[in-house]
Structures are given as C-alpha cells and as structure tokens.
Design a protein that fits this description.
single chain, about 350 residues, mainly alpha, de novo design (two linked rop proteins), about 65% helix, globular, 23S_rRNA_IVS_sf, Four helix bundle protein, 23S_rRNA-intervening_sequence
Amino acid sequence: MNKKVEEIQNWYRNEKELSNYSIMDIGGKLKNLAEKGLIWVLKDLKDTTESERIVINYYLDKYRAVQIYDNLHDLTPILSSNDEYASTPSKSSKHIIPLQNKQHTLEVRDVQQFNGYQKAKELEERIIELCKNFPSFEFYHIVNQIERSAESIKKRIQIGEQIYIREKFNQYSIAVGSAKETSAWLQVSLGQKYITQNQFEELDNMVNHVIGILTKNLSNIKEKEGKGLDLPSPYTPNVKNFGAYDNALLLVEMIYEVTRRREFWKEKDLVRKMRKQATSCVANIAEAHQLYIKKKFRFFNDSLKALRGLESSLETSVSKGITSKESLKEISELRISIRNVLSANMSNISSERAS
C-alpha cells in the first residue's frame, strides 16, 4: 500500500476514535478530504460502517473531478486530530492537507527495546496465565475483558512508536486508560476471590510501573520536542482516590452477592447482564482517568449508560418476583450516589470545554 494512503487512513481512524465514532462529527472531516481530492483512499477501507460508506461514496461522487490519484508522495504529511490545516499548496496541486512541522516530529525507535513495551508484554503474559484458573463462567466476561485491556496497553505502545508527537500522545493516552482499566478488573477479580491479595498487589504494581514509564516519556516529549504544540498534561489522576470508583467496586460486590441467591439460579441471562453492567461501570470510570478531556467525558458517559442498564435489569428482577424492591434499596442508593458524582464531573468537564 502507498505510504501516503496508509497515513491518511490511519489519520482518519484516529479522528473517528476521538469523535466517538459519531458520523455527525466525522462528516465534516470526510467532506474536507473530498475537497482536497483524497476521499478515494477511504473507499475500500474495511473497518467502516454502512453510514460511513454512504457518506464516503456521496462525497466521492460529488468531488470526483478533483480527486488526486498520482504523486501522492509530494503531498505534505497528514496531521493527527488536533493540528491545524496548513495553508501552503502541495507541489502537485492547489489542494491542501494538514502540514506537520518538522520540528514537531520524533525519532522512531525499535519498540521491542523500549522498557515500557517490555513491561506491558510481561504484564499481558502474566495475566493470561493467571486467568487460566478463573471460573469457566467468567471466561466470556472478566477473563475476556482483562485480557483485552492488558493486550491494549502493549498494542497502543507499539502503535505509538511513530514520528508524530500528537499521535504518540493519543496512543499513550489510550494505553494509560487501558492500564487503569486492567487495574480495575484486577480489583474486581480480587473482590470475587479469583486472585489472592499478593497476586493483585504484584500485578497492580506492574500496571503502575507501565503507567509511570509512559508518563515519564510523555513528560520528556512535552518539555522538549513538543514545545508550542499545546499538548495535554501527561499526568493523570489516581483513580483510586476517586470516590465514585470505590463505590462502583462496592456496587459490583453487592450485585455478585445478590445474583448468587437461589432465586437467581434460573435467571442466567439476567445474572450475566447485571454483573456485566456493574463491572462495566467500574471499568469505564477507571479508563476515564487519562490525558484527553473528550475521552474522559466519553468514558464517564459510558459508565452512566451501564448504570442506567443496571437500573433496568434490577427493575426486571423485581417485576419477575425474583427479589423485592425493598431488598434492593441499598444497591439503588449506591447506584444513585455514583450517578450523581459522574454527572457532576461531566458537567464540570462541559463547563471547562466551553470556557
């Protein structure tokens, strides 16, 4: 594949992720690419939705006459999400695409030699080995989720080893979020006695070690190569100091305890749903503690969605006569408390973005 085509496709994937895959948000970016004569590079992209393909084909047809198929190597590089569009025409046409300042690029290193990658790889291997001893009914839930989040740390570090500073920050931010999510799943596993206290502390320390390495690297980049780029602070808050996180862990404990009752034995689908919704609340709260405000907001919102889903499932259990509303009073109060904290934080984030 032409490197320029691959670069534009990767840029577009990044824009999708930052916009939470909203077709309303990325529609303008697709039009921008179409006007610059580059929308055609997305036509055969496999990881697009039907809505995206409709928009891509629409703009391809509308701007077919201006599409640039030759001499792509003469175009200036695509930027990552937060960069401004350049105003200097490319050599091959009057159309423009984002320009990356050469002073704001990085040396690409061998990721296999990076200590952070090695530690993330070791963490993933340890977690996979540990999960072999989990109950079989958790293989499609906790096991799947913790292995996925651990893999994401390593994967995002690997993707982050590239020339563009902003994209490195973006990928490392996702890696940090995945690390915090991994820690949350470890705490859930400890709460259910799937792992021992010693196993938890050892693996949680490994998670924090990886976060520390990434943070140090990001701090160095921000202070040196990234001057003038208005990069976010590389320091993320400790989710364990966030009250809603502890309450969400307690909520998980309560849901597991309730769903172990004899009354729920014949309601396997409802049990799986309730446990998934409660643990999803914890995982999303943890993953929200990362560099970018937009992602923080999105994960808090996903946590709220999980809480609303849990409320619906609890109501179903009452309607079916499996349990009583009174017996769920403590759970409901805790759920409302978490919801209020998340809503307040999201309101503060919205105010910060508007100011």
